[in-house]
Amino acid sequence: MREINFAVGRPDPLSFPSDALAAAAAKIISSRGAELVNYPDGRGYEPLRNIASQRFERSEGRPVPLDEIVLTSGSMQALQLITEAFTEPGDTIVTESISYGGSLGVFRNRQVQIVPTPIDKQGLDTGELETVLKRLVAAGTPPKFIYTIPTHHNPTGSILPLERRKRLLELAREYDTLIVDDHCYGDIVFQSESVPSNLYQLVEDDRVVYVGSFSKILGPGVRQGYFMAPEVLQQRILANKIDGGTNTLSSMIVAEYLVNYLWEHIREINNVMKERKNAVVESLEEHFGVLGEEVWWTNPPGGMFVWVRIPTATDTRKALRLAAKRGLYYTPGQGFSAMGEDIPFLRIAYGFPNIEDIRRGVPILAECIKTAQRGDKELAA
Amino acid sequence: MREINFAVGRPDPLSFPSDALAAAAAKIISSRGAELVNYPDGRGYEPLRNIASQRFERSEGRPVPLDEIVLTSGSMQALQLITEAFTEPGDTIVTESISYGGSLGVFRNRQVQIVPTPIDKQGLDTGELETVLKRLVAAGTPPKFIYTIPTHHNPTGSILPLERRKRLLELAREYDTLIVDDHCYGDIVFQSESVPSNLYQLVEDDRVVYVGSFSKILGPGVRQGYFMAPEVLQQRILANKIDGGTNTLSSMIVAEYLVNYLWEHIREINNVMKERKNAVVESLEEHFGVLGEEVWWTNPPGGMFVWVRIPTATDTRKALRLAAKRGLYYTPGQGFSAMGEDIPFLRIAYGFPNIEDIRRGVPILAECIKTAQRGDKELAA
């Protein structure tokens, strides 16, 4: 039985540029390898920070000064450092009610109070956010920051409209809190219409920290993430970065590769991703209709995930177990619930499985969910 | 003015194996690069853990089971995770009175109480340790662990004798505490007589965590450290490792290189290091005698540092400032004092500077120290 993995957000192994990366590695280690006897710079290897700046410039029209950019061991380390810098255990933060499980894990590990804010198909509901902020301030527990994924949300795929972005910034100013903008999926785009300006571009004061990653276009195994923050915030975040620095060997190889291939590789990745996303959506149309009227799914304009509403009566643990027995893996909705609730959703990550896996996997998933419906008797129990 | 750097413990850039490492990188990325689309394994890239096991076997006569070995982003991350696992802020730990500044920084960052134990030329004084442990237990503040560098101590170069190692383990058992054995300099050896067995080899229960590194033989820029710990301790340490895993790209390159060149490279490094250490000691003999009878220095059997006693009347800040003005950098004794005291010592790290730098630098250092002697008047003030 060949495993089908819809669980982990990772890129396609077949389009991994092994040979070009190998050539880049050989070249840069031959010429600059001896620099590895040094500890990494505090902000990390400059040529890779330069690429982060150019990525930002490509979408936002201006480069980010290199001293605002700090490389980290994946975006997870960035998020961990940010959380340690601005919260103590017991403090309050605000997230979207549905959010990335890895980030929620970082917050829970810090033992902060996660306050969810409702979302809709466009992302964070800023009207609801105002209510939440008002309530928290009145209760004497103002949030230390608002964590949001405004672009290609994980798992819902939503893109926050410009007006809401502006409102979000206004609210952050009004209630004097920070915003952490997780932009990790920003390069995986299927539609030509442009994404609204980034919060880091729109903000006019020192209130936004941007989290980015090279893992989504190369692979999590390179462990190259970063954050961008103005000096005053950056110093607080760096105060906890006592790890000896971010891996120079990996940074130099990734930089040497991306300096030549960044946009070409992103184009290639996006073509592959779009094909797979389409295969997921087509397969869902074909096989998930029978599950009833409650069921729906996203058709995301970018990112790596389709978010699927499944019937309320689903025994989600049973469905997961049944699927695993058939070699099929996915992440149940509970993993993305800010409150850790057992919600009738699941996420299909389509970066890793190929088209054949997708066409074979989706009907299996439909069967497992069907079999896992609680009967009336069970529902009454 | 060419800078002379005696400050940082890092290997020789001239003997850095750029070409062999470049070839190893090209080979392994071509063949296994696509694995980088996966998140690293929880314990890290297995072939590199295997090399850690073989290193241990070479000196201790038995390999360590691979599931006891966990790769980390440099040994600093290992130490940070260990500290987070076994202490809370305010807890007590025991260290040698003179210890590695980087480690002390990790402990201070955690806001633990560092209790120093006197050392002599053989390292930790186990008689004094017993007194310290007795006192701490009586005060209701038993230490969470004893942090020690038994082999090629940084900065003193001492090697703890076998009998003291055994006594240290007995005391840890008697007072029910853990031992963290920092073995980062274990491969840099100049003398053929063997170093006593490692604590991780001698221990008979789940009480010792071993910290190792590949940075000292390749370079801190590869960020490859590790710890070894029995299951019960390891699980507690791993609970805080939420960084997405240790850099696979760097691990695979380092492993591919070391699998062929580990012992050859260590031999080469040790030859270079020994030459430099000898140059430091000879230069000290020539130029430091004039500083008076209080002055002495170590002639270490391994490691990367010479520890120098300077006159008590030295204004250590002034000496440092004078040296910096002449482009000479070193670490003053205060950086290694567990209590952060301004002690009349300094450390010369001889891995990075070449022989010419050493012969030029030591007399400059002697002059700066001489100029920085406080007069009788100042001493009386």
Structure keywords:
7-stranded mixed sheet; 15 strands; homodimer; 381 residues; 12 helices; 4-stranded antiparallel sheet; Aspartate Aminotransferase, domain 1; Aspartate Aminotransferase, domain 2
What does this 3D model show about the protein?
Chain A has 381 residues and is α/β, with parallel strands linked by helices. Chain A has 2 domains: 4-13 and 265-380, Aspartate Aminotransferase, domain 1 (Alpha-Beta Complex), CATH 3.90.1150; 19-261, Type I PLP-dependent aspartate aminotransferase-like (Major domain) (Aspartate Aminotransferase, domain 2, 3-Layer(aba) Sandwich). Chain A is built from 12 helices and 15 strands. In chain A, the strands form 4 sheets. Chain A has a 7-stranded mixed β-sheet with strand order 2-10-9-8-7-3-4, sandwiched between helices. In chain A, strands 11-12-15-14 form a 4-stranded antiparallel β-sheet, with helices on one face. In chain A, strands 1-13 form a two-stranded parallel sheet. The longest helix of chain A has 40 residues, at 248-287. Chain A starts with a strand and ends with a helix. At the A-B interface, helix 1, helix 3, helix 4 and helix 9 of A face helix 1, helix 3, helix 4 and helix 9 of B.
